[in-house]
């Protein structure tokens, strides 16, 4: 939900905040942030979902996919372009209820991890929304989306810390219980070093993530540090959970213990809200600009 609330907090007007954020505090409500399309993921500016203005209304056509809460959200924050040739300058941001005529949606099945979360595709066919659905200013949607990610990437760092800490906790417990060659596997330096590396990385993840969150809270520029927090935490959690499966041996590969799930859940952190490669694109762009 949080991802969908951010563009409204960043650029929405009081009426939009009252209507949409108000719903979230009144009752159990789902919302979704829909930017990704079948043909445009990392390259957001290549999106095809189009809008045009007719009198006091906007008309939307296009498809979004891989959208968290996509098949069940009560309202959507959606990005669309007035003219694909304008690239990022043509993109605007809209908020509207999912009950608007012309919207169909499906749950997407077959995910590797994070299976308790809904992932959906949304089809917009001549969806008519009032002019008041525009969030912020026309043509500034790309800017709001990027500002959203500056805020949300530390949250991915926080999810990563939770997954990684659980993996280490499970390893500490199991390595003392499991014996090989007449002694607990925790006595083997090879096992100890994997757990020591996990602890080092988790502490570094915490510090980066807290710093990024602190800068965001202070309203300071957090583009680079948010990307550090997300890239480092996602990549470290992938390493940590893979090593956790290793420490559990064959049992780790089976569903009897939670570490295989942690490993599957970790993978997505390197993909959504900008892949680990895209975080490095952001970081390198900022480094070269200085
Ligand atoms: C479970 C799930 C939930 C999601 N939730 C949401 C959501 O709520 N809302 C939403 O809008 N989207 C969501 N997404 C979409 C997600 O953000 C995209 O999948 C992601 O941004 C990558 O886009 P893509 O899948 O099109 O991959 P592509 O952009 O096709 O990338 C393919 C590969 O190329 C690499 N690559 C691309 N460009 C570059 C470059 N310039 N330099 C180096 N490498 C590059 C990528 O890193 C990746 O390894 C979700 C995805 C999943 C799987």
Structure, described:
The protein has 290 residues and is of the alpha+beta class. It has two domains: 2-137, Butyryl-CoA Dehydrogenase, subunit A, domain 2 (Beta Barrel); 143-289, Butyryl-CoA Dehydrogenase, subunit A, domain 3. The protein has seven helices and ten strands. Strands 1-4-5-8 form a four-stranded mixed sheet. It is elongated and about 80 Å long. The site of flavin-adenine dinucleotide has 22 residues, from strand 1, strand 3 and helix 7.
The chain-level structural class is alpha+beta
| Total number of distinct structural domains | 2
What distance lies between the first and last C-alpha atoms, to the nearest angstrom? Answer: 35 Å
Which CATH first-tier class of the largest domain would you pick? Mainly Alpha
Shape: elongated
Please describe the topology of this protein.
Blueprint lengths: L1 H10 L2 H13 L4 E4 L15 E5 L2 E12 L6 E7 L9 E7 L5 E5 L11 E12 L3 E2 L5 H37 L1 E2 L2 E2 L4 H29 L5 H31 L5 H11 L6 H14 L1
Parallel strand pairs: 1-4
Antiparallel strand pairs: 2-3, 3-7, 4-5, 5-8, 6-7, 9-10
The structure holds flavin-adenine dinucleotide (FAD).
């Amino acid at each position: 939900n949080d991802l969908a609330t951010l563009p409204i907090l960043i650029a929405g007007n009081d009426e939009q905040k009252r209507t949409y954020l108000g719903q979230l505090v009144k009752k159990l409500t789902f919302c979704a942030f829909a930017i990704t399309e079948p043909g445009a993921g990392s390259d957001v500016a290549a999106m095809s979902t189009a809008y045009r203005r007719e009198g006091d209304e906007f008309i939307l056509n296009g498809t979004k996919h891989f959208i968290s809460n996509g098949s069940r959200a009560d309202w959507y924050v959606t990005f669309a372009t007035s003219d694909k040739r304008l690239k990022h300058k043509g993109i605007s941001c809209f908020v509207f209820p999912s009950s608007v005529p012309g919207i169909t949606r499906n749950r997407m099945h077959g995910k590797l991890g994070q299976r308790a979360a809904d992932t959906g595709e949304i089809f917009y066919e001549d969806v008519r929304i009032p002019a008041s659905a525009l969030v912020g200013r026309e043509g500034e949607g790309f800017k709001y989306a990027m500002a959203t990610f500056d805020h949300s990437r530390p949250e991915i760092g926080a999810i990563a810390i939770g997954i990684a800490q659980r993996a280490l906790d499970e390893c500490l417990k199991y390595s003392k219980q499991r014996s090989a060659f007449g002694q607990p596997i925790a006595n083997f330096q090879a096992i100890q070093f994997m757990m020591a590396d996990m602890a080092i990385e988790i502490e570094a993840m915490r510090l980066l993530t807290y710093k990024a969150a602190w800068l965001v809270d202070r309203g300071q520029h957090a583009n680079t540090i948010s990307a550090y927090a997300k890239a480092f935490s996602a990549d470290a959690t992938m390493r940590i959970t893979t090593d956790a499966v290793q420490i559990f041996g064959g049992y780790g590969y089976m569903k009897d213990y939670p570490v295989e799930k942690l490993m599957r859940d970790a993978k997505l952190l390197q993909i959504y809200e900008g892949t680990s490669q895209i975080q490095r694109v952001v970081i390198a762009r900022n480094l070269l600009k200085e």
